[in-house]
């Protein structure tokens, strides 16, 4: 089996990391993989001197119509049986058109749950033989928009649990970020953008008595950094919130946290939630998108209505005040990851979709 993968992200986190996991797993199963990525992309460097062939192709985004021709040329040269499109930026629509022009079936991974116009969605998703959604929440959005349900498959994202089970000592975390050891420490691991809900958390913190607030470390970067920093100052939370930026050493710190808070308004699934669960960290998250699939209320965390400041305050305070509940939910998270979000399950799920398309006689629902 020969599969050509297209990933146009420049950094190896989020969706690109999932692609790296997938290609590593497919290669171990004997699949012949070709990776198309932009010049200088981190995922290309990741597969340097590996069984995965890397072809660098420039892509300037959704309006780079010349990318269709460039990708079609690579498809003709590499002769894959399938094309798997992993990115939204430039790769989904343009990649689908290139694959169709080359008469090679295309599979699209969809990782976000933001809605699209119904007519656009119905046109767009006909470009693909299958659409692999990383959560049931995303699949529901597509079905609601009129996308043919026969094209949709759900294969959840995965996490390499072993990377998250060896945290640094808590004392080291406190020293690194200047936190008094007596304080409860919460983390947020998300881009600094509006839909991740940082402002909701800061409002919730401001409603807590200073002695009951957790210290919050915000891991991540993004265009809202200055505005969020100003909001922290306005609310008098300067001594309670630290912006740590994007950290490649996040696995060192995640498991040393007392809880993770993810107050996003929407989320396809939430890889940070899987990472926290693998690390045995209890979670407070929003009941939206695919988040309830990664955070089971009462099993590995607590769920609240997105944007509800008071509900978030109550949930955060509850975990801050109950160490036994934190341990219980942390244990539940480890069990959940082992049961439903392993790398093997994710790789086998994608591979089953490929086999379905390459053995149409075994699959009467193959879309055309």
TrEMBL record:
Pfam families: Glyco_transf_4, Glycos_transf_1. Residues 178-334 form the Glycosyl transferase family domain. GO terms for molecular function: glycosyltransferase activity. Keywords: Transferase. Residues 14-161 form the Glycosyltransferase subfamily 4-like N-terminal domain. InterPro entries: Glyco_trans_1, Glyco_trans_4-like_N. The keyword Transferase applies. The keyword Flavoprotein does not apply. This is Glycosyltransferase involved in cell wall biosynthesis. It comes from Sinimarinibacterium flocculans.
């Amino acid at each position: 089996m020969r599969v050509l993968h297209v990933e146009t992200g420049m950094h190896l986190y989020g969706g690109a990391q999932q692609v790296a996991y997938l290609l590593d797993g497919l290669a171990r199963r004997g699949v012949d993989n070709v990776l198309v990525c932009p010049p200088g992309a981190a995922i290309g460097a990741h597969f340097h001197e590996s069984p995965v062939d890397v072809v660098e192709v420039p892509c300037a985004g959704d309006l780079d119509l010349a990318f269709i021709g460039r990708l079609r040329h690579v498809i003709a040269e590499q002769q894959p049986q399938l094309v798997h499109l992993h990115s939204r930026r430039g790769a989904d629509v343009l990649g689908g058109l290139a694959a169709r022009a080359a008469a090679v079936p295309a599979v699209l991974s969809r990782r976000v749950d933001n809605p699209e116009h119904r007519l656009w969605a119905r046109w767009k998703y006909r470009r693909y033989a299958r659409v692999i959604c990383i959560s049931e929440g995303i699949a529901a959005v597509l079905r609601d928009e009129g996308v043919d349900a026969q094209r949709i498959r759900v294969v959840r994202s995965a996490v390499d649990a072993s990377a998250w089970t060896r945290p640094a000592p808590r004392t080291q975390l406190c020293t690194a970020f200047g936190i008094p050891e007596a304080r409860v420490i919460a983390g947020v691991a998300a881009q600094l953008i509006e839909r991740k809900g940082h402002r909701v958390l800061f409002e919730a913190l401001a409603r807590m008595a200073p002695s009951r607030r957790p210290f919050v470390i915000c891991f991540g970067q993004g265009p809202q950094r200055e505005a969020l920093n100003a909001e922290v100052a306005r609310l008098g939370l300067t001594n309670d919130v630290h912006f740590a930026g994007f950290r490649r050493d996040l696995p060192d710190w995640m498991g040393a946290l007392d809880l993770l808070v993810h107050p996003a308004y929407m989320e396809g699934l939430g890889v940070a939630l899987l990472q926290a669960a693998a690390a045995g960290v209890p979670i407070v998250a929003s009941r939206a998108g695919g988040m309830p699939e990664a955070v089971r209320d009462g099993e590995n965390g607590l769920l609240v209505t997105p944007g509800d400041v008071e509900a978030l305050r109550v949930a955060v305070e509850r975990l801050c005040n109950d160490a036994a509940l934190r341990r219980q939910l942390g244990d539940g998270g480890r069990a959940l990851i082992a049961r439903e979000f392993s790398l093997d399950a994710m790789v086998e799920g994608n591979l089953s979709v490929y086999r379905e398309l390459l053995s149409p006689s075994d699959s009467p629902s193959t879309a055309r």
